[in-house]
Write a structure and sequence with these properties.
Distance between the termini: 81 Å
Strand order of the largest sheet: 1-4-5-6-7-8-9-2-3
Helix content: 25-40%
Radius of gyration: 18 Å
Length: 181
């Protein structure tokens, strides 16, 4: 007799994920109303929700939905133009070792001028937060085992950065040269 464990595993794999700890605009958010659904076919009952890109595109009129970009999403000007109907976009980090989400955020900010919220979801660790912010993320949903106090310390650990980022367009040596004039 076949077991129902596969059916249960499939249902669990597509169950909307809700993360309690959210860093938004450099602060610990009092709550996170958004869930993340990885189901490509069915809309989640829980709202508001981030849903896979194709599902969001088919339901853009639902203001309680926002796009969830997989780490292999190819951004185009036409695609980013569609985001003008939403105030927020989520970028999935399927594994903390997958850095493609950083590139998506930088491209959204620098190449395409997206000004809405870009939220990191998935396997988001405390030690990634500063880099995420520097690439253009304005919100980061922490993995459940990450402590919010550690996240805030990590996010504010550096007061000076040598390299440029989406917020600071001049390297430290350029700022020093300009200040010395």
């Amino acid at each position: 007799m076949p077991s129902n464990s596969n059916t249960q595993n499939d249902a669990t794999a597509f169950a909307p994920v809700h993360v309690d700890h959210l860093i938004a605009d450099g602060e610990l958010a009092p709550e996170n109303a958004w869930c993340v659904s990885y189901d490509d076919e069915a809309l989640p009952e829980q709202r508001p929700a981030f849903v896979p890109l194709a599902l969001w595109q088919a339901n853009q009129d639902d203001i309680e939905l926002a796009p969830l970009l997989a780490s292999n999403t190819e951004l185009t000007a036409e695609l980013v133009q569609q985001f003008s109907t939403t105030d927020t976009v989520a970028v999935d980090f399927p594994a903390f070792t997958d850095g493609r989400g950083y590139t998506i955020a930088r491209l959204l900010r620098e190449r395409y001028g997206y000004t809405g919220e870009i939220r990191a979801v998935g396997d988001v660790l405390v030690d990634q937060l500063d880099y995420m912010r520097r690439c253009g993320f304005t919100a980061m949903a922490l993995r459940d085992d990450q402590h919010p106090d550690d996240a805030m310390r990590a996010l504010n650990a550096f007061s000076v950065r040598y390299q440029t980022d989406v917020e600071e367009r001049q390297a430290l040596f350029e700022r020093r040269l300009t200040a010395g004039e």
